[in-house]
Amino acid sequence: MSSPIQSLPPSLQTLLQHHPDFTINAKEGLYFGQTSLKAIAQEYGSPTWVMNADILKSRYQKLDQAFKAEQLDVSIHYAMKANGHLAILDLLAREGAGADIVSGGELKRALKAGIHPSKICFSGVGKTEDELRLAIETQIAQINVESREELHLLSKIAQSMGKNAAICLRINPDVDAKTHHKITTGLAENKFGIAYKQAIEVYKEAYELPNITPLGFDVHIGSQISSTDPYRQAFVKMVDLINEARNQGLEVSTLDCGGGFGISYHDEQEASPSAIAALMKEVLAPLDLKLGIEPGRWLVGPSGVLIGKVVMHKSNGSDVAPFIIIDAAMNDLVRPAMYDAWHGILPINPEIYRRPYQSLNIDGPVCESSDIFARDRLLPNLQPGDFVAILDAGAYGSVMSSTYNARPMAAQIMTSGNQSAIIQPRQTIEDLWKDEIIPSWYPKNS
Prior knowledge:
Layout: H1 10-17, E1 22-25, E2 29-32, E3 35-36, H2 37-44, E4 48-52, H3 53-69, E5 74-79, H4 86-95, E6 98-101, H5 104-112, E7 120-122, H6 129-138, E8 142-145, H7 148-161, E9 165-172, E10 194-195, H8 199-208, E11 212-218, H9 229-247, E12 254-256, H10 273-284, E13 290-293, H11 297-300, E14 304-314, E15 323-326, H12 335-339, E16 345-347, E17 357-363, E18 372-380, E19 387-390, E20 411-416, E21 419-424
Parallel strand pairs: 4-20, 5-6, 5-13, 6-7, 7-8, 8-9, 9-10, 9-11, 11-12, 12-13, 15-17
Antiparallel strand pairs: 1-2, 2-3, 4-14, 14-15, 14-19, 16-19, 17-18, 20-21
Helix pairs in contact: 3-4, 3-10, 6-7, 9-10
């Protein structure tokens, strides 16, 4: 491979520094691991999701090795809400991962991918009776109970089935994760979990209720957390809680430590598996617990990109940066519209990097003012037909897509080395209405 293109502006140099899986080849353009995104764009078109199996596998192994290095036996339950594609679940299952699920649909999807019930835990604040029944029938590892009301409902269902339900109580420790307010889950004002002050009382109830097998506790304080400080605060509070429970004669064998490990979208510090593992050993190892974690974004986020193609270079005058309209949109990747999320954007073809750089607005074509990918981003002068890659799109990307504005779902591709395969065909226009039914009592069109 030839040397990378020289004289990139500092902003792109910083982006590449924090995204070592990307390189720019002077002849072939942007590489994602060993994959030429130019070749992918030429073969599959756009918009197209690309998941790199090699990077995903490497990240899982890095996480797993961090705990083994500390001699910690930690169960890794992939938070499949981040990206539940069967190809991803299959790969992670082969690596030894379990699943953290939040719906009956995700439970069936995890089972379809070959994840054993003994490696599945069920989180979520609004589990239905049917979902709880399915979880009990399947005999999953644990149900993370989020309220006193759910605990009593679960006991009633399990009793009617003549089966036991293994549970952990999800505790809200009232710890500020210092993350975006829409993805924090560990504050008292959030809907998640049982209030810390009520934890012992509810855990005692769990012991008294029929057909409930209490295992311990679960704590998850939010998402996109890079510092270990919030985890330390939460873990210390859980240690106090576990000691109090044990002092009152209540057995606690399990602590699910949650997930939320942050990645570097721009120039942030990525969460360090080694630092988290060291913290868990320091604070939790003395308690002799069965430990679990629930990573999602950290595993799949940097393992995926979204390819888009420029359809219009639009100028609104000298006072406003040009608008670059691409064929990917908020119906594909909703995070920027929903969270004002920042995603790196890199041109794919090598010749683009030789053009003059300027501030550009990158937008999608959807009829919403929030269909924005970037504002005043320093990039080469993009023109119609150019392909770009939106980085760190493997988590909360394709899984949150919609067909808004009658826009078909994008194709999904998985790569490994120089191999690629379609894992989700591009939806056709006709697919959009194939399951729609007009009532028979409508007047017939003449």
